[in-house]
Amino acid sequence: MVFGSAVTIWLVGALIGSMLFFAFTVAPTVFRSLPADHAGLFLRAFFPRYYLWGLILALIAAAFAIPANAIVSTACFLVALLFVYVRQTLMPQINRARDDELQGMPGAGKRFKTLHMWSVAINGFQMLILLAVAVLLL
Are 129 and 79 a contacting pair, CB within 8 Å? Predict the structure, then answer.
Protein backbone atom coordinates (compact mmCIF):
# COMPACT_ATOMS: atom_id res chain seq x y z
CA MET A 1 0.00 0.00 0.00
CA VAL A 2 1.43 3.38 -0.96
CA PHE A 3 1.73 6.15 1.61
CA GLY A 4 -1.13 8.20 0.13
CA SER A 5 -3.49 5.22 0.30
CA ALA A 6 -2.50 4.49 3.90
CA VAL A 7 -3.14 8.06 4.97
CA THR A 8 -6.39 8.15 3.01
CA ILE A 9 -7.72 4.98 4.65
CA TRP A 10 -6.80 6.35 8.07
CA LEU A 11 -8.56 9.67 7.35
CA VAL A 12 -11.62 7.93 5.93
CA GLY A 13 -11.78 5.71 9.02
CA ALA A 14 -11.46 8.73 11.30
CA LEU A 15 -14.22 10.51 9.41
CA ILE A 16 -16.61 7.55 9.46
CA GLY A 17 -15.85 7.04 13.15
CA SER A 18 -16.55 10.71 13.88
CA MET A 19 -19.82 10.60 11.99
CA LEU A 20 -20.97 7.42 13.73
CA PHE A 21 -19.92 8.75 17.14
CA PHE A 22 -21.97 11.88 16.59
CA ALA A 23 -25.04 10.04 15.28
CA PHE A 24 -25.12 7.29 17.89
CA THR A 25 -23.54 8.92 20.94
CA VAL A 26 -23.44 12.72 20.92
CA ALA A 27 -26.90 13.55 19.52
CA PRO A 28 -28.85 11.03 21.62
CA THR A 29 -26.93 12.01 24.77
CA VAL A 30 -27.61 15.70 24.20
CA PHE A 31 -31.34 15.09 23.81
CA ARG A 32 -31.48 12.79 26.86
CA SER A 33 -29.38 15.05 29.09
CA LEU A 34 -30.51 18.58 28.28
CA PRO A 35 -33.87 20.32 28.15
CA ALA A 36 -35.07 20.69 24.54
CA ASP A 37 -34.25 24.41 24.29
CA HIS A 38 -30.71 23.87 25.64
CA ALA A 39 -30.19 20.84 23.40
CA GLY A 40 -31.16 22.95 20.41
CA LEU A 41 -28.74 25.73 21.38
CA PHE A 42 -25.94 23.23 21.89
CA LEU A 43 -26.52 21.53 18.54
CA ARG A 44 -26.69 24.86 16.71
CA ALA A 45 -23.25 25.65 18.09
CA PHE A 46 -21.94 22.13 17.50
CA PHE A 47 -23.14 21.45 13.94
CA PRO A 48 -21.03 24.08 12.14
CA ARG A 49 -17.93 22.60 13.77
CA TYR A 50 -19.02 19.04 12.96
CA TYR A 51 -19.46 19.91 9.28
CA LEU A 52 -16.18 21.85 9.19
CA TRP A 53 -14.37 18.86 10.76
CA GLY A 54 -15.88 16.55 8.14
CA LEU A 55 -15.01 18.96 5.34
CA ILE A 56 -11.37 19.21 6.43
CA LEU A 57 -10.90 15.45 6.81
CA ALA A 58 -12.61 14.73 3.49
CA LEU A 59 -10.51 17.32 1.64
CA ILE A 60 -7.26 16.03 3.11
CA ALA A 61 -8.27 12.46 2.24
CA ALA A 62 -9.12 13.57 -1.31
CA ALA A 63 -5.73 15.26 -1.65
CA PHE A 64 -3.79 12.23 -0.41
CA ALA A 65 -5.76 9.93 -2.72
CA ILE A 66 -5.03 11.90 -5.90
CA PRO A 67 -1.80 10.09 -6.84
CA ALA A 68 -3.09 6.65 -5.89
CA ASN A 69 -6.72 6.49 -6.97
CA ALA A 70 -8.74 9.09 -8.89
CA ILE A 71 -12.06 7.42 -8.01
CA VAL A 72 -11.30 7.52 -4.29
CA SER A 73 -10.13 11.11 -4.54
CA THR A 74 -13.29 12.13 -6.40
CA ALA A 75 -15.50 10.30 -3.89
CA CYS A 76 -13.81 12.05 -0.96
CA PHE A 77 -14.18 15.38 -2.74
CA LEU A 78 -17.91 14.68 -3.23
CA VAL A 79 -18.22 13.98 0.51
CA ALA A 80 -16.47 17.30 1.18
CA LEU A 81 -18.84 19.16 -1.14
CA LEU A 82 -21.82 17.64 0.63
CA PHE A 83 -20.45 18.87 3.97
CA VAL A 84 -20.23 22.37 2.48
CA TYR A 85 -23.78 22.16 1.11
CA VAL A 86 -25.28 21.00 4.38
CA ARG A 87 -23.30 23.49 6.48
CA GLN A 88 -23.79 26.54 4.29
CA THR A 89 -27.21 25.94 2.71
CA LEU A 90 -29.27 23.27 4.40
CA MET A 91 -28.37 24.00 8.04
CA PRO A 92 -29.47 27.67 7.90
CA GLN A 93 -32.76 26.56 6.29
CA ILE A 94 -33.27 23.98 9.04
CA ASN A 95 -32.58 26.57 11.73
CA ARG A 96 -34.99 29.03 10.13
CA ALA A 97 -37.71 26.40 9.86
CA ARG A 98 -37.21 25.42 13.51
CA ASP A 99 -37.39 29.06 14.61
CA ASP A 100 -40.56 29.51 12.55
CA GLU A 101 -42.01 26.35 14.09
CA LEU A 102 -41.32 27.65 17.60
CA GLN A 103 -43.08 30.89 16.68
CA GLY A 104 -46.13 28.93 15.55
CA MET A 105 -45.89 29.58 11.82
CA PRO A 106 -48.14 27.25 9.82
CA GLY A 107 -46.27 24.54 7.91
CA ALA A 108 -42.95 25.29 9.60
CA GLY A 109 -42.91 22.03 11.55
CA LYS A 110 -43.39 19.99 8.40
CA ARG A 111 -40.69 22.02 6.60
CA PHE A 112 -38.32 21.48 9.55
CA LYS A 113 -38.92 17.70 9.52
CA THR A 114 -38.42 17.50 5.75
CA LEU A 115 -35.19 19.52 5.81
CA HIS A 116 -33.90 17.58 8.80
CA MET A 117 -34.67 14.32 6.99
CA TRP A 118 -32.61 15.56 4.04
CA SER A 119 -29.66 16.32 6.30
CA VAL A 120 -29.87 12.84 7.83
CA ALA A 121 -30.15 11.24 4.38
CA ILE A 122 -27.14 13.19 3.09
CA ASN A 123 -25.14 12.19 6.17
CA GLY A 124 -26.04 8.55 5.56
CA PHE A 125 -25.13 8.86 1.87
CA GLN A 126 -21.76 10.34 2.84
CA MET A 127 -21.11 7.38 5.15
CA LEU A 128 -21.98 4.94 2.36
CA ILE A 129 -19.57 6.71 0.02
CA LEU A 130 -16.85 6.57 2.67
CA LEU A 131 -17.49 2.85 3.30
CA ALA A 132 -17.16 2.22 -0.45
CA VAL A 133 -13.91 4.20 -0.42
CA ALA A 134 -12.61 2.08 2.45
CA VAL A 135 -13.45 -1.10 0.52
CA LEU A 136 -11.67 0.23 -2.58
CA LEU A 137 -8.57 1.01 -0.54
CA LEU A 138 -8.34 -2.32 1.29
Answer: yes
